Amino acid sequence: MAAPGRSTVWDGVIELTKKAQEQCVDPHLWASRLSANLKPFVEFPSTELAEVLVSYICWDNNLPILWKFLHRAIALNLVSPLLVLSLLALRVVPNRSTQSAAYRLYLELLKRYVFTIKDHITGSHYHNVMNSVANILRLPELFPLETDRPGLLVVEFVFKMVSLLLDACLTDEGLIELSQDSTSLWLIKSQDMEIDEKTGSDEKLQSLNNIMAIEMIAEFLRDTVISRLLYLVFSNRVSKWHEFVSRVKLLAESSSALRSSKVVNSGDLLELVSNKRFGYSRDSSNEGSLRKSNAIVDFGSLAPFAGLCHGASLSSLWLPLDLVFEDAMDGYQVNPTSAIEIITGLAKTLKGFNGSTWHDTFLGIWIAALRLVQRERDPIEGPIPRLDTRLCMSLCIVPLVVASLIEEGEYEFVMKTLRGDLVTSLQVLGEFPTLLAPPQCVVSAANKAATKAIMFLSGGDVGKSCSDVINMKDMPINCRGNMRHLIVEACIARNILDTSAYSWPGYVNGQNDQIPQSLSSEVPCWSSFVKGAPLNAAMVKALVSVPASSLTEVEKLYEVAVKGSDDEKISAAIVLCGASLTRGWNIQEHTVEYLTRLLSPPVPADYSGDESHLIGYACMLNAIIVGIGSVDSIQIFSLHGMVPQLACSLMPICEVFGSYTPSVSWTLPSGEEISAYSVFSNAFTLLLKLWRFNHPPIEHGVGDVPTVGSQLTLEHLLLVRNSHLVSSETLNKDRNRKRLSEVARSASCQPVFVDSFPKLKLWYRQHQRCIASTLSELTHGSPVHQTVEALLTMMFRKVNSGTSSSSGAASEDIIPRPEFPAWDILKAVPYVVDAALTACSHGRLCTRDLATGLKDLTDFLPASLATIVSYLSAEVSRGVWKQVFMNGIDWPNPAANLSKVEEYIKKILATTGVDIPSLAPAGGSSPATLPLPLAAFVTLTITYKVDKSSERFLNLAGPALECLAAACPWPCMPIVASLWTQKAKRWFEFLVFSASRTVFLHNPDAVVQLLRNCFSATLGLNAAPMSYSVGSLLGHGGIFPVAPGILYLRMYRALRDTVPVTEEILSLLIHSVKDIVQNRLSKELKTVKTGSSYGQSSLATAMTQVKLAASLSASLVWLTGGLGVVHLLIKETIPSWFLSVDQEQEGPSELVAELRGNALAYFVVLCGAFAWGMDWRSAASKRRQGIMGSHLEFLASALDGKISVGCETATWRAYITGLVSLMVSCLPSWVIEIDTEVMKSLSNGLRRWGKDELAVLLLSMGGLKSMDHAAEFIIHSRS
Questions:
Q1: Residues 6+ apart with CB under 8 A from 709
Q2: Other CB atoms closer than 10 Å to residue 473's CB: what's the count?
Q3: Cross-strand bridge partners of residue 931
């Protein structure tokens, strides 16, 4: 009320009003006199005047003329209508039953003024008015915020007004008790207890009031400004909005007054609060509604799936999946991050960007996984991942990804829906018989899976471990399985499908009555073992060759490995490393987990020795390390994300066993003897395969952007492993992260660092120094010097004794082998190799003796091969050694195969358009040359036998040799390939393919040409319409010629500087837009062009192609440069491009310019989504706000006129519009991170371009920090 000191002023107001009331003075005259009387004392609009007038009317003077006076006071701006409505709401609504006429007048005032709210929130008194409104309506209680921001208060006011009407309607019809929120904060019950009798006219007016109130609610929801303000509540107070919607639905479904309305019906009311209208939700289920908004740039979405199944469009939608799947098959580097985590994030990203359903997403993942397997139809032999790795991805990793996506649904009804989408996707998968054809080696497993389904349908006893008792000879000839049967079994094993899948139409071909009454059995190995059969030699042989089919069987093995006798532990370890690891797709993640656990055995409770307890597990540990040392096995561990923990488990093994001399040994059950050197060498060699040990810690790069893979160091692996120890809210919801955490904790609950292993650390630091600089001076008489002398004596004992290296072995054991711990030998090896190379270069040591001596050293301590590799790699890069002639006398001669290698390199690169430099030396007759360290290295490697015993060492030396040869001038790598083909003829295709990749490392123009080929193959710019596909980019297997995408994926890791490549990809994207318009659309555009408008079909086709080009570009950038290059791209490269002046002689057409902007927007956002993820789950997402914030600040500065851009205006506008569209439609988590001032600049810029609705969406999703500006923006924007 009025302050006491001013009571005489307000008493005068009341007196004036009474006289006017009695004399029936015209309201206009009354208002004029009132204004004149008050003008010296108060400022208008006056809060106190509003309180006085409303208090006077309610309820002693509730007369029509006084309501006219009030209306006139509002019209002349003596009082604020918002304030008056607030005061009346608290007085009239609770008394609507007894004051029906007043309630009707209140509704009329509300209708007149609330929908013109823009006219009432201007002026200097705006803030004071809204604060008064907040005090009256207790708006801080509505949203528990301490704020006086007027825009936010306007939102609260509007929501309060419509909520009051809604609660009043529900109460008057007796529906409020049915509401889930019957204790609503805003519910003010009608105070009609004093009325004993109602007249018919009152009841009629109340009925009409109810109808009008409902119509007012509909008008609130229909009005553009009001509905946008309500959308702010929806965006920022989801629970409040859901309560409101539930009450509106209750009213729509149960109100009798609504049925009497001639203006609105139940369907209208439901439509006004539907997701279709308020569908700009952060819930992925509503993404389609947002995309349909005219505000959002339509980048194209997934059409009805049936129409795309057999065309190229389906391939293009999921192209990044195919690229990531294929990239994971490269055995030259393991990934410390689980493929499950990578692919899960990628699938969610692509679903959002494609606007796909979960059915389509699941189907896209399955098809990409099947294509991955089919590309191995014509494999090449060599030390590279083979079919086992591809099957692991398709039949284990992808089912785990799908399980993870389903479990993220959290609520049971959501997960049930997702399982339904999985079912329909697998049913549709049956329409792709070519993709489902199983590779020959898994035909038997597929047939057994199909047989299992037939047996189940026939009522037979089908247990999870029956696969080892099915004899396919007993089954009908038409009982043939395919890849879908294996996928279904993998899904059933993860509890995301059940056996109802066996009843799907067309799932099995055999008839139930064809099932024989009895089945003869093969060796029932697993069944017998689970029942207690001993692990004797015959049982081990059987179990190794047949994968376990259930978790129970693997758990039984693990229990034996932990609690059994020493011999049983070894046998169990051998079995776990067998078919259960490589082909046990239904339980593979458990096999990998248990093997990793076994590498960190616990200290026995009764152990009291001084030496490490690991010594007692030497035989079992060695069996596991050898068993998982193949290329495929390592890649399987990598796909499951176990590499960091695997490295952590190997480090203490290396630390302990490297401290013993070879005299410490153990005898295996087979009678074979293994020494501490063997265990150490096997563990050390495996450890080195897990990181780029022969590369500098920080390789060639620009600024803080290192080249690919250079961050894969021991420190990085331990950092990732330690991160698995950190608990998080999502840990229990993510079965993959939970498994990684449990495995890490089983080894040690404490973080582990390189410093935890002193001997390993000492070698590691020496190794880094060796790569980075020349060897330090060797102190004469020091322990290292003594070790060097002993090793040189052992290696060159024949030379020292004057015996030819070609003579017999009579003198081989004259000099005893030195007894040094392995760590001491590794410390001395660089000096040993340096002395040997120096002697060879000065003619004191022949090349044959050099190779023999190095081989003797690696035979003595196989782990020394790693240090030899790192030393020779460093020496080649320094370029101080002379070239040696590979003439067949001093060094092996590659001439016999060199011309053939050149011929096949040309075949491989036939379609790339890349010129292949001749391999023939200048002059034609001179022999080929290699740098001395490289010649020594290749000569050493070809002394190894190409067999299983040498496989793990060749797998270490092979990539290092290729990397070393690739870094040397052309044609070093082809020469190495020629020499090796003489050794391993079956590896010819692999070696030639490796040599062909080095062409691109020596010629940057060749890299550009290869990238052009990737774009052409993907976009089909030089092909017939719809002939482009994933197959054009990645091929269908085979290497003559190699598909451009495969060639790039197998080449890019060797690039020394990825930044120029990234810039070239950006340039190709920009130019491809013009090519798309010219090559693909020119004819179509001509036929549909009408005036200056292009047909919608043409624009849709163009946008689809542009999206495909951007998707390819983003995938290549992400794979090539990783997080660092993506950061550089967004923070520097893209802004620099916009600032530069377009160099084209003729500016692009408006269509090309606009499509370029859209392409860049899609490219940038997709790069960021690949790198950071769509939400906050990944560790990389912590960098997103800083990098993206910097980019958006650049855009805001340009929009504010602080920076001038040099590109086409249409490109600039399309870029910003497209960028914001993608963020609000796909990446709400990103929007929340945007700085408020930046958001204001972006929204103001969009308004200037007529993109008001998009600006509203942006501001609405910015959280409470932008809500105030969003409200004012909405109120003052164009309707």
A1: 333, 692, 695, 1053
A2: 8
A3: 883
DSSP classification of residue 1131: I
CA separation for the pair 156, 138 (Å, rounded): 10
* Nearest partner of 1115 among 435, 508, 350, judged by Cα: 350
DSSP three-state, residue 694: coil
pLDDT of residue 344: 94
What pLDDT is recorded for position 5? 46
Two tokens, residue 695? 């590369």
pLDDT at 125: 81
Contact 1046, 380 (CB under 8 A): no
**What's the distance, CA 583 to chain centroid?**
27
Residue whose entry in the numeric block shows the structure tokens 């980048």:
299
What is the Cα–Cα distance from 476 to 479, expressed in whole angstroms? 5
Tokens standing for residue 474? 């007993």
In one letter, which amino acid is 1153?
A
**pLDDT-flagged residues of the chain (< 70):** 1-7, 140-148, 178-200, 279-315, 410, 460-479, 510-524, 695-711, 727-732, 799-815, 921-925, 1022-1028, 1080-1098, 1142-1147, 1278-1279
Whether the upstream peptide bond of residue 1148 has omega within 30° of 0, thus cis, is no
**507 sits in which H/E element:** none
Cβ contacts of 1050 within 8 Å, gap of 6 or more: 330, 993, 997
Q: pTM to 2 decimals? A: 0.88
Rounded to an integer, what distance in angstroms lies between the CA atom of residue 1153 and that of residue 1159? 10
Radius of gyration, alpha carbons of the chain = 38
Helix (H, G, I), strand (E, B) or coil at 929: strand
Which sign, positive or negative, has the C-alpha torsion 424, 508, 399, 556? Answer: positive
Q: Torsions phi, psi of 930, nearest 5?
A: -140, 150
> In terms of Cα–Cα distance, which of 1068, 979, 975, 1091 is closest to 1021?
1068
- Is residue 401 helix, strand or coil? helix
Enumerate helices (H) and strands (E) in the chain, giving the number of each.
62, 6
900, 982 Cβ separation under 8 angstroms: no
Taking the C-alpha atoms of residue 462 and residue 453, their distance in angstroms, rounded to an integer, is 8
**Is there a contact between 590 and 605 (Cβ–Cβ < 8 Å)?**
no
Question: Distance between CA atoms of 928 and 1043, rounded to whole angstroms?
Answer: 30
User: Going along 901-984, which residue ranges are E strands?
Assistant: 929-931
Determine the Cα–Cα distance for residues 1014 and 152; give it in Å rounded to an integer.
Answer: 51
The SS3 of residue 246 is helix
- 752: its two tokens: 């582990």
Distance of alpha carbon 941 from alpha carbon 504, whole angstroms: 54
Give the integer Cα–Cα distance in Å for 407 and 152: 37
- 2 Cβ neighbours under 8 A, 6+ residues apart: 9, 10, 48, 51, 52
Q: Which of 611, 679, 691 is nearest to 646 (CA)?
A: 691
Q: Rounded to an integer, what distance in angstroms lies between the CA atom of residue 791 and that of residue 137?
A: 90
705-706 and 673-675 beta bridge pairing: unpaired
Helix, strand and coil percent figures for the chain, each rounded to 5: 65, 0, 35
Of 1110, 1030, 1032, 1044, whose CA–CA distance to 1076 is shortest? 1110
Q: Which pLDDT score, from 0 to 100, does residue 715 have?
A: 92
CB 684 within 8 A of CB 652: no
Cα(295)–Cα(1250) distance, rounded to whole angstroms?
10
Strands of 779-899 (E only): list them: 883-885
* pLDDT value of residue 805: 46
SS (H, E, C) 1057-1111: CCHHHHHHHHHHHHHHHHHHHHHHHHHHHHHHCECCECCHHHHHHHHHHHHHHHH
pLDDT at 1089: 47
